[in-house]
Specification:
- The protein has 171 residues and is α+β, with helices and mostly antiparallel strands.
- The protein has six helices and five strands.
- 29% of the residues lie in helices and 27% in strands.
């Protein structure tokens, strides 16, 4: 049996190597909403998260969607540059999550293959700058691809999409 490139790839830096899609979804949600202008540039922050987004062989999750959804978190190059001067950083912690059959949209329109999972995670987010703090909640949907999906690595799950734009959140 030959192995596919996905079988041989290691998880990107910071992405857990796990078969627990719920754990991966919660860590991914936290990572999506966490950044620190004091320790990383916009390009580094974007690139770190971009490395977690695994494009599927059918190209149903192109990088253009990644860019749109990353900006839907409130992070873009101009805002990041402005926040750098204010020593801005943002932290997030999952407050609750629902996955697969717990989501009405998932039940109404099941994923196209076994091994694809969707979790809706609500985060408690805190933004900090020298001018003050801002606290809020933010929903994000995380799409995870796991074995036995042929497009998943044999030994772990991987994030294949996230949705932060309100019209794309899965409930």
């Amino acid at each position: 049996m030959t192995s596919s490139p996905a079988d041989q790839s290691a998880a990107p830096a910071g992405e857990p190597s796990t078969l627990d899609f719920r754990q991966l979804a919660n860590i991914a949600a936290r990572t999506i909403y966490t950044w620190d202008t004091r320790t990383a540039t916009y390009s580094e922050t974007y690139g770190r998260l971009r490395s977690w987004w695994h494009v599927l062989p059918d190209d149903s999750n192109p990088l253009t969607i990644f860019a749109q959804q990353f900006e839907a978190t409130g992070t873009n190059a101009a805002a990041y540059a402005s926040l750098t001067g204010a020593k801005g950083y943002r932290t997030a912690q999952p407050a609750n999550s629902s996955c697969d059959e717990q989501l009405a949209q998932y039940v109404q329109q099941p994923p196209p293959w076994v091994g694809m999972h969707v979790c809706a995670v609500t985060l408690s987010v805190e933004e900090h700058t020298t001018s003050g703090d801002n606290k809020y909640t933010a929903p994000v949907s995380i799409v995870v691809n796991c074995p036995p999906a042929v497009s998943a690595p044999a030994d772990r799950c991987e994030m294949v999409a996230f949705y932060a734009a309100p019209e794309r959140i899965v409930y």
